[in-house]
Amino acid sequence: MASPMASPMSAGSFLAALKAEGLTVVEVGDWEHHNRNHKGPWGPVHGVMIHHTVTKGSAHTVKLCRDGYASLPGPLCHGVITKDGRVHLVGYGRANHAGLGDDDVLRAVIAEKALPHDNESNTDGNRHFYGFECENLGDGQDPWPAVQLEAIEKAAAAVCRRHGWTERSVIGHLEWQPGKVDPRGFTMASMRGRIRDRLK
């Protein structure tokens, strides 16, 4: 049973968990201390959120997710999963990835129950979710290489394994915030199935 008051892992534990799951991890700069903690709390954590980047090119994607842009400063996630299946750690702590979402969805994630339809944006997701941005144009045409999908599965499973969560603690951005479509090109139901099988 998931703990309703899970403290975030330390940066070192996060790194170790990803490596223990068999991932190739790239540490980008001073990622352990790059965060938005001055803007609000980080934790308790309740789940993992998967996004697509709407970008092309791994180096550009990693830099954008680390630095952000004028209207949305970085980090924009904790890990960037590029098409080659590597996980680039760009920040740790509060990150600008989830934004405001549905409190009913958060309650379902905490209870590890089926997700309701997201129809509100009233709850701070940056506080409660680990975030992985996945390199993809998000147009429904850009392919998802098998090695990248496997890395998404492993990264999410690594966090769930460390916290004692099931696959129901993993959601897509589109399941959290009305109007979002990411990740596009695979279903979160299929990804949760893969994570469930990995955690067995």
Automatic annotation (TrEMBL):
GO molecular function: N-acetylmuramoyl-L-alanine amidase activity
CDD domains for the chain: PGRP (cd06583)
Entries under InterPro entries matching the protein: Amidase/PGRP_sf (IPR036505), Amidase_domain (IPR002502)
GO annotation (BP), single: peptidoglycan catabolic process
Record-linked Pfam families: Amidase_2 (PF01510)
Protein name (database record): Uncharacterized protein
